[in-house]
Design goal:
OB fold (Dihydrolipoamide Acetyltransferase, E2P), Rossmann fold, binds zinc ion, binds guanosine-5'-triphosphate, alpha/beta, Ribonucleotide Reductase Protein R1, domain 1, five-stranded mixed barrel, 3 domains, single chain, binds magnesium ion
Length: 277
């Protein structure tokens, strides 16, 4: 007998598969190893109920390498505004990675409660800017809006350790009780509390909690392609068709940065990525 389901958790060689009726623990058939295809969290699979083995991996919509998950619809980029400090650099970097994988990014700010009035005003400007370039931005206090926007999707949480990813999921579902921990005061960063990747169903949404990361690299993106992941650069008409918006003259991107139409931090991070690449 065969059944179909979705892999929600992998611990060493044990795959937890959620079917319409139940949770099954299965192993994977040796043939996957031979085909160098590994079942991933998020995979839709066929299970042979007689042997409790995964016999087939259904075609994937996409695969992310960090975290290593399949079939993601949206990435919820969890950004701490304080403790750890807000990093536009990390946000822009994650955004590029997400867009490159054809996944819809959604930003969720946390720790707004720790900001003073002036800091809030500054953040509001940044929030408006990202919305203006077409990205949804929520605060972690807006539980119902967030759940309603993410309904029927598989959502991966991304963001640095201590940003509040697991805390957010606990708030969305009181029964989850995921482990969370205070950040290290001396280092001003998280302690890598979440250790493995797992899928949780909350109402009609699947969430993938992930271990946080402090850095991320863009090594597999060409310098020439970087600019394509900036929505606000797309309607700029520069003199040179292949303008990198860097040292060229008559560059509309640079003009828009000067006139504050493009957020300076967005452009500065872009140049940093260009030089890093
Ligand atoms: N003041 C405040 N603290 C928060 C908020 N969200 C999370 N925290 C705290 O931030 C700390 C880190 O939260 P976690 O949920 O463990 O962070 P994480 O992103 O899951 O971290 P890793 O698992 O290490 O990647 C905990 O002490 C939380 O209580 C918030 O909105 N406001
Ligand atoms: Mg966590
Ligand atoms: Zn240009």
């Amino acid at each position: 007998m065969l059944s179909q389901g979705k892999i929600i958790k992998i611990v060493s060689n044990q795959y937890t598969v959620s079917t319409n009726h139940e949770l099954l623990t299965a192993t994977a058939r040796g043939k996957f190893r031979n085909e160098s295809l590994t079942p991933l969290v998020g995979d839709n699979v066929t299970i042979d109920l007689d042997t409790n083995q995964i016999s087939e991996i259904l075609p994937r919509k996409n695969v992310l390498s960090r975290p290593n998950v399949a079939n993601i619809d949206k990435a919820l980029i969890v950004c701490s505004l304080k403790k750890p400090e807000f990093s536009s650099y990390l946000l822009d970097k994650i955004l590029i990675n997400v867009l490159k994988n054809n996944i819809t990014p959604v930003i969720c700010f946390t720790k707004c409660d720790l900001l003073n009035f002036q800091e809030k005003r500054k953040i509001n400007k940044i929030k408006k800017y990202y919305q203006h370039i077409g990205i949804k931005v929520f605060n972690n206090t807006k539980k119902f809006r967030l759940l309603s926007y993410l309904k029927n999707n598989i959502v991966v949480l991304a963001g640095q350790s201590g940003a509040g990813k697991s805390t957010l999921l606990n708030r969305l579902d009181k029964n989850l009780q995921l482990k969370t921990d205070e950040i290290s005061e001396s280092l001003n960063r998280g302690k890598h509390t979440t250790r493995h990747t797992e899928l949780f169903k909350i109402k009609k949404t699947y969430f993938v909690d992930t271990p946080g990361f402090g850095s991320l690299d863009l090594t597999d993106i060409n310098k020439e392609d970087l600019k394509n992941y900036y929505p606000e650069f797309q309607n700029c008409h520069c003199k040179y068709q292949n303008c990198l918006h860097y040292k060229e003259t008559n560059c509309e991107v640079k003009e828009k940065v000067s006139s504050n139409e493009i957020l300076t931090s967005r452009y500065e991070n872009y140049i940093t990525f260009l030089k890093e690449g």
